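Issue: ligand-bound run for 4'-deoxy-4'-aminopyridoxal-5'-phosphate - logging full I/O for the record.

Environment: standard queue, default settings, no custom constraints.

Inputs:
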Amino acid sequence: VFSNVARAPEDPILGVTVAYNNDPNPVKINLGVGAYRTEEGKPLVLDVVRKAEQLLVNDPSRVKEYIPIVGIADFNKLSAKLILGADSPAIKENRVATIQCLSGTGSLRVGAEFLKKHYHQGVIYIPKPTWGNHPKVFNLAGLSVEYFRYYDPATRGLDFKGLLEDLGAAPSGAIVLLHACAHNPTGVDPTSEQWEQIRQLMRSKSLLPFFDSAYQGFASGSLDTDAQSVRTFVADGGECLIAQSYAKNMGLYGERVGALSIVCKSADVASKVESQVKLVVRPMYSSPPIHGASIVATILKSSDMYNNWTIELKEMADRIKSMRQQLFEAIQARGTPGDWTHIIKQIGMFTFTGLNKEQVEFMTKEFHIYMTSDGRISMAGLSSKTVPHLADAMHAAVTR
Ligand code: PMP
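Outputs:
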């Protein structure tokens, strides 16, 4: 009965790793997937995560019962506090409904399903370009997806004028997906003044912000700094949604732990919203898993562990920044034509190199360097040892 099923294409991002794994050449580098690697090119489990796991394993009171549909209560409270700030009025006024979800992707999907069912506008504007899964998540939830201008290839920076024009022309009430920090794939974020202008425009048109926060702490090294965009919007008392992921900032990729927060106008509305989100989750996966959220709650609850986490997080962010500097210098040293300052100006895990599809294909074929075809490279996948090979490849691709 399934013989007519056509073969689906490989996911464009995860497919890069499949191709990398199939390449026997030892000089190969995988800059496709956004997962942190050490200087030695190894995946990293944070010390503080190992400690939290030890505590959990040694606690005989822990059982494997189902948890509530909305997840672990402590985890939800602490996650809202992490993104909104300890003194957030929205939290104090109990106006935030937070639901533990399956990492960032699951949080986006649950939020999208809720909006499709309960929000009057069925259109969501997403930046052009954006993370490749965004349009798929929102389309599958039944929202219609439109793009707003975001990146200007000429300046390799923000197309702020285009952004304001497109959001200004969006229908009243439209949902707008915003990357809270470290925009993926471009590494280009609005300045705080620009965020303020975006906020004013969006509120004046009743556009509904849906923040995707997949990199809190990864962009600047500071959890508070990277949450500023979200906090600016919450401070004005208006509504928004936030999808949080602990994949990158706690290195909990495969644990699939994240949270959806819906900031409402009143405690009464928030509790009704929560009751409806439960109806979204129950038929999808019933309730979320325990382990990852228990690790997060253990760390966020203890001031010692929290501090240790921020130190390790800063180390990861600093290593990424140092890779930017090293790659920039290596390219300068080779005299590669063009302005490459965007490598050090962009922030977060990725550099949007500006290399085109043909150049990317050339680098893969001749240098065994793997990246997405839009020229995005994960700086977290680089090390001092691999920077020269990448710089050689980029130089060859640009000058051939
Ligand atoms: N949003 C953005 C912008 C991302 O880059 C990612 C991860 N690549 C995610 C969401 C979701 O990741 P996860 O589901 O692993 O938390």
